[in-house]
């Protein structure tokens, strides 16, 4: 997601694996907030600053934003932590409720033994300094391609066919029509198992004829 925002001294410790985490990190950079400033504003006691900062880094680097209960403490549940964090970062909850609901749905309905797939376009945007984090995030969302439910349960040939058609459809729809002079450079299918990337396949731009 390096095309979304440049690293700064306020964000270099975070490694986002979800677009919503990138939104939060962009806002941290905009507000110039240090981790200790954030957790203090969230309500953590001073004596708990270090572990609270560790939890913050974990949540913003976790694909499920910590909603998988992979890092908990006695102060906040997984949901409460996100609510408090978004409040401090001045991020409205409503626009991202669907993203959070999707994460919870993935955690509920997909067995952990099944790999998880994500398909996205590799896009170069020409963001200028006056483009805020919300606009950057909205533009970058156009690079993500939603795969059908049950994709992980399909056999390899079926998955390959869907990926090929999805790439072609996305390219036809967005090439030359992306904001901020966005240029599609290629596509990438990422496979994860137990929250770890186990495979990554790059795809060239599709041919002009239909797949």
Explain what this protein looks like in three dimensions.
This protein has two domains: 19-107, no CATH class; 111-203, no CATH class. Strands 2-1-3-4 form a four-stranded antiparallel beta sheet, with helices on one face. 41% of the residues lie in helices and 14% in strands. With 211 residues, the protein is an alpha+beta fold. The chain contains seven helices and four strands. Residues 1-6 have low confidence and may be disordered. The radius of gyration is 18 Å and the shape is globular.
Offer a quick outline of the entry.
The protein is of the alpha+beta class.
Give descriptors for this structure.
single chain, 211 residues, alpha+beta, 2 domains, four-stranded antiparallel sheet, 4 strands, disordered N terminus
Secondary structure topology:
Elements: H1 19-31, H2 35-42, H3 49-61, H4 78-88, H5 97-109, E1 116-124, H6 133-141, E2 144-145, H7 156-174, E3 183-193, E4 196-203
Antiparallel strand pairs: 1-2, 1-3, 3-4
Helix pairs in contact: 1-6, 2-3, 2-4
> How many independent structural domains?
2
Spatial separation of the terminal alpha carbons: 27 Å
**Helix content bin:** 40-55%
Provide a count of the helices. 7
Structural class: alpha+beta
- What's the shape? globular
Cα-atom radius of gyration = 18 Å
Spatial ordering of strands, largest sheet: 2-1-3-4
Low-pLDDT runs: 1-6
Order of helices and strands: HHHHHEHEHEE
Number of strands: 4
Percent of residues in beta strands:
5-15%
Major sheet: size, sense and barrel closure? 4 strands, antiparallel
Mean pLDDT: 87
Oligomer description: single chain
